[in-house]
Amino acid sequence: MSGTDGTGAGTSGREDVLLEVEDLRVHFPIRRGIVFDRTIGHVRAVDGVSLRIARGTTYGLVGESGCGKSTLGRALLRLNEPTSGRIVLDGTDVRALGREPLRRFRRRMQMVFQDPLSSLDPRQSVQSLLTEPLRVHGLDEADRGRLGGNGERAHVERAAELLEVVGLPRSALARYPHEFSGGQRQRIGIARAMVLNPELVVADEPVSALDVSVQAQVINLLEELQELLGLTYLVIAHDLAVVRHISDTIGVMYLGVIVEEAPSDALYEQPLHPYTLALMSAIPVPDPAVEDARERILLAGDLPSPANPPAGCRFHTRCPFAQERLCADTVPELREVAPGRRVACHWAEEIRDGRITAHRVDPDATVTADVRPGTSGPSGTDLDPLAVP
Amino acid sequence: MAEHPGPVEGPLLAVEDLSVTFQHRGGPPTRAVDGVSFTVDPGEVVGIVGESGSGKSVTSMAVMGLLPARTSRVTGSARFDDRDLLRMPDAERSRLRGKEIAMVFQDPMSSLNPVLTVGLQITEVLQRHQQVGRAEAREQAVELLHRVGIPDPRRRVGEYPHQLSGGMRQRALIAVALACRPRLLICDEPTTALDVTIQAQVLELLRELVADLGTAMIMITHDLGVVAGLCDRVNVMYAGRVVESAGRRDLFAAPRHRYTEGLLASIPRLDAPRGEGLTPIPGTPRDTVGWDRACAFAPRCRHASDGCVRPDLALEPMAPRSGEVEHLVRCVHPAPVGAPEHLEGAR
């Protein structure tokens, strides 16, 4: 844990950790009944996630819909109340904060949402949208001196400054969200998140609602802002290509847990978890030569319900490498297999070294096929492990 | 496997000079599709790629005769087996739709009827277009669900769309589309609403089915990656027109239109080394001019010059690199053939 003096440096040993999350859980109750509001179960959206994000770096969180990545992002800012676990931002235990201290603390952690059209109030002008956080929290000390006080005029000045930083003209202040294109609206959403000089920015699918030709503009903008303002990002996205592009570290989520965590390049060069392998082999690459040459690991079936996740390894029902031993009954720990590389798979090394090969998975079968190391299943020939191009 | 009647020679579908204009109440007419021509040969997979608003979906809707007659005006021709789909009486088109031409839409939840069982939605098509009894149709429905990879089809045939997952719904929709073994399957963003691993399943299924049944397919998508692994020929659309048309190898290895080139340079690629900057296309798809005055992409193009301000730029043939199919480009300053920008970093 870093120091409480705000700088954090020196006290944490190796790296300057800004955010530390420990065994975070977010469970949503499933309710039934009209008279008696009974809770009949829980959707375990986030079920024991631990991660650390170093100051000034980008942590990318990937996973498919329903894996809990957005819930995790929101829980970090306590937009969803976590069920248990610890969130420490720069020495402050975020979960221990009371209502008012939390409100004040929020200026240090902000969020960029997926769809700027629904996250920006259509009836507020851009000026009003950008100065609203300042009216609530006030200007930064430094900005106060620079812009002359904490009045309305200084707020507008700060808003105009931010617009310029995100590449919009000052004249945009008088306009309304619907007057802008999707890319421009996302720039406004980003400016709004940055206006309070936050330290941590959680960006939930920041580009997936945008046109392909505009996505790159917003990705580049996020990178420029990080450099300019020294921001720390948690970027949540389903698109591994986008996440790989902007992240230093990537965490892959499946059914509420992180199944693999690695530096961005290492993850791409050698994915260790079978789910990461499948995810990477599923992403289309805009290059026919690559597409024709690659072999896919097609996952059978769909994501199991997070209200009733499979026992043992949560991925074992769909895993083409699942073994009879361990997978169905023992929960794999997220263990460090190399410096900076964590993976939650009993057989990661065996799979990496080719001692276990993929076999076909019957999506309806509850028992996994019997495949011993070194032998492939009955139809294993067409499902060899992915040769990443 | 599939024996189809009809001519062996010539394209299965020939769309020529197709234009669609929408008339809004009180507003000026909007031209969504502007003189689009392309052909689909029997068994061929043709991609139509473009961003939202490029007119790719409207093109397919017009071909299928699904646009509201009151607010839209469709001109040009779409010859299917030498019959013009656009001038055909409605009754005749209805006989063709679902039987010889079928369509798969993006969102299966809104294209399947929520109050009918999946089985009924398949047997409906079969009973309408083929002389089969109910029991026979039901057997075929089970067979079809099995064919598209839905586990336990005998149970699923009696279930409602909401009981299926997103991926299974899309499979069911494909089963409905394939029920009568159409000769042409039009897929409009069939995997956009799905997760990547499910998308991979559905694309694999389509790839297999097209190969097995010899069905021709039009794949409409915004995702160049989907096209790269699937299509024989790709048409890139921008602001209502086809700006480039080529075999997929030519298109990706040597894009000639500056829009295609820019698009490929702006997509983060999974296999590109990290730290490699993206080169975005400036502006937004809204920054456009009418094709009747200039190249619609000129306001966003780094290579634009005064020469680009000329009415009705033609789609001109370029020398194809690999001799796959004709390479057509609508550009005054086509990119040189060489190492394209987007591959420089990757290689």
From TrEMBL, chain A:
> In Gene Ontology terms, what is one molecular function of this protein?
ATP hydrolysis activity
- What this protein is called in its record is ATP-binding cassette domain-containing protein
Residue ranges occupied by any ABC transporter domain in the UniProt entry:
19-280
Family the entry assigns? Belongs to the ABC transporter superfamily.
Q: Which PROSITE patterns match?
A: ABC_TRANSPORTER_1, ABC_TRANSPORTER_2
Q: Which species?
A: Desertihabitans brevis
Q: Where is this region: Disordered?
A: 362-389
| A Gene Ontology biological process term | peptide transport
